[in-house]
Design goal:
Elements lengths: L3 E7 L2 E5 L4 E5 L9 E4 L2 E6 L2 E4 L8 E21 L4 E20 L3
Antiparallel strand pairs: 1-2, 1-5, 3-8, 4-7, 5-6, 7-8
Length: about 110
């Protein structure tokens, strides 16, 4: 059985991806009618016994993904309080993500 996977970088984070898996990356700006995204910032590729390590990325390697849509993460609340100072600050943040399904991993040269 040949195992195929790759390590990609998207949004300054690294992800280990395999074909037919779902990944959630930081929001990627794309057109509304776009159905696929090609990620070419591939750092490592393994295809069975063949291994390619990039310096810093593998030349010619691509990960082709189907675009499933944009989603929002859970809200994170940041609360700051100083006792006896009448000072309180509450701030919330909700991260936007793009959900992708990995269709194919193309190795480099």
């Amino acid at each position: 059985m040949s195992e195929q996977y790759a390590v990609i970088e998207s949004g300054s984070k690294q992800y280990r991806v395999e074909p037919n898996t779902l990944i959630r990356v930081e929001k990627i700006e794309c057109l509304e009618d776009q159905k696929e995204i090609i990620l070419d910032n591939v750092l490592f590729v393994r295809d069975g016994e063949k291994i390619q390590v990039g310096t810093p990325k593998v030349e010619g390697a691509q990960v082709i993904c189907d675009l499933l849509g944009n989603i929002r993460g859970k809200k994170v609340i940041s609360y700051r309080y100083r006792r006896r100072k009448d000072s309180m600050k509450k701030k919330g943040h909700r991260q936007s993500y793009t959900q992708l399904r990995v269709r194919e991993i193309k190795a480099g040269k």
